[in-house]
Amino acid sequence: MRIAELSRRTGVPVPTIKFYLREGLLPAGELTSPNQARYGDVHLHRLRLVRALVEVGGLSIAAVRDVLGALDDPDKSLHKAMGTAEAAVMAADATSDDEVARAQAREFAERQGWRCHPESDAFQSLVAVLATAREVGLDSFPGQLDGYAHAALGLARQDLAYALTAPTKDAAMEIVVVGSVLGDKALAAVRRLARRELSQRLDRGERSGQETDPDC
């Protein structure tokens, strides 16, 4: 297909596709003349993937390049690929040098029996969250973390089980990497919907046995 058809089938404007080609996010097409190239299903799939990472995942071009590099690396394990994706997602997260918050994060990880590297993006992000909670007077917020951990383990098991249903390692890698990006967005959306539902039930007297119609 020509670049115009690639644009039509993906909804990505031609100038944006050309930008992705220049940035190395898409492989070059097969030249059919000095000014024309042919693109195939590989380009179609990769372009849809890039669009999802940029538009839904909110990743920068540099972060998308890192994520795609993890997908294309034949020697990278699922664990390392997930780490690359998570680092890309959390690259813009705030950091903090609050030692009390750092101690709270370390104590939380120890309670769970988790091996957390103190310089990892996820650990640093948790420290920043705890520091902010202290700044706004939510001193009891660290007590929420154990409940979060219980729920998060179930979600992590589901993520990995889903990846293992893939027929090939490449497909599993893509599920792990893209799922790390889109899964966080989906989880945040579902969590908001669930809170809204519970709030509506309380507001309408659900606790007294009255029935309500869900309204997302």
Secondary structure: elements and pairs:
Layout: H1 3-10, H2 14-22, E1 30-33, E2 36-38, H3 41-56, H4 61-72, H5 78-89, H6 99-112, H7 121-135, H8 145-163, H9 169-203
Antiparallel strand pairs: 1-2
Structure description:
A hairpin with a 2-residue loop joins β1 (30-33) and β2 (36-38). By secondary structure, this protein is mainly α. It folds into two domains: 1-56, Orthogonal Bundle (Multidrug-efflux Transporter Regulator, Chain: A, Domain 2), CATH 1.10.1660.10; 77-203, no CATH class. The radius of gyration is 22 Å and the shape is elongated. α6 (99-112) crosses α7. It has nine helices and two strands. The protein has helices at 3-10, 14-22, 41-56, 61-72, 78-89, 99-112, 121-135, 145-163, 169-203, and strands at residues 30-33, 36-38. A two-stranded antiparallel ribbon has the order 1-2.
Question: Would you summarize the structure shown here?
Answer:
Helices cover 65% and strands 3% of the residues. The protein is built from nine helices and two strands; from the N terminus they run ααββααααααα. β1 and β2 (36-38) form a beta hairpin.
